[in-house]
């Protein structure tokens, strides 16, 4: 399966490609199957526990209460319950996806329905637009873009589409993969793309077939290859650096395609805030830009760093069995687990 199709299936999940604006300095953690919020000192902010808790974005979060009600949580711990909501997603661009009667719509931070639930799938809003799929009333088939007025923008009917990033969206139509511009035009690339990622740091990782191999390189905003396709794998650029794979080895490069160092890893992702997320021997670790592992213990899972912290998970063995516990690691190396 092509990797961009995997990205599509997961586009309702928290996206690490677009860091959230967590201005509250509160972070969701999980223990004993329930979520709560802690501050940078590891102290719980609220007494309430939740079945689900998103990150705060611009001072608002989506939570699911113990009685399975979904709502918007503000910094004072007050919840606005959304009637009949089944699920909700993290805020982005001022709106959050909400699932009601098995259809997706959008709410604002006050809990008002801005776009009525009507879509089989719905991405986060980015740069004023969102990707949605299948609406019987509008006779939409496949994926299309809508604005915050729920108006269809561009032509409907893409077989694949990612949200806009830096003015471009990766789409597929008629078995052709390309980048759509915000004015509706297409970015001209002198190669047939077989895979790709969203633009980040003014570059997009794309893949072509060359000598019967799937090779990755990077194109700029004009569609020119700045780094020629030569890698087995290429992650997006963040903070001016990217992780790529060549001859089954992961390495860190800059925009000049100069190698900084190699990574001893089974899986590796590009650095966020100076921290590279890697997996080795079934454990997750963070590596700094000097190539040094910074965490003393490996994690069961970890997210990329955003706003000075990353969410981490571990298994904790108790007399009642094995529990999954989440916490946070900060840029200074401090680790705080759910209590």
**Mind summarizing the main beta sheet?**
4 strands, antiparallel
* Helix content percent band: under 10%
Structural class given helices, strands, pairing? mainly beta
Low-confidence stretches: 1-22
Number-wise, the strands total 33
Please report the distance between the alpha carbons of the first and last residues: 40 Å
Query: What's the total helix number?
Result: 1
Radius of gyration: 21 Å
Mean pLDDT comes to 90
What gross morphology would you assign? flat
Strand order of the largest sheet: 3-4-5-6
Strand percentage, roughly?
over 45%
Quaternary organisation of the protein chains = single chain
Explain what the structure shows.
β31 (309-318) and β32 (321-330) form a beta hairpin. Residues 1-22 have low confidence and may be disordered. The chain has 339 residues and is mostly beta strands. It has a 4-stranded antiparallel sheet, with no helix packed on it. The chain is built from 1 helix and 33 strands. The protein has a domain at 239-332.
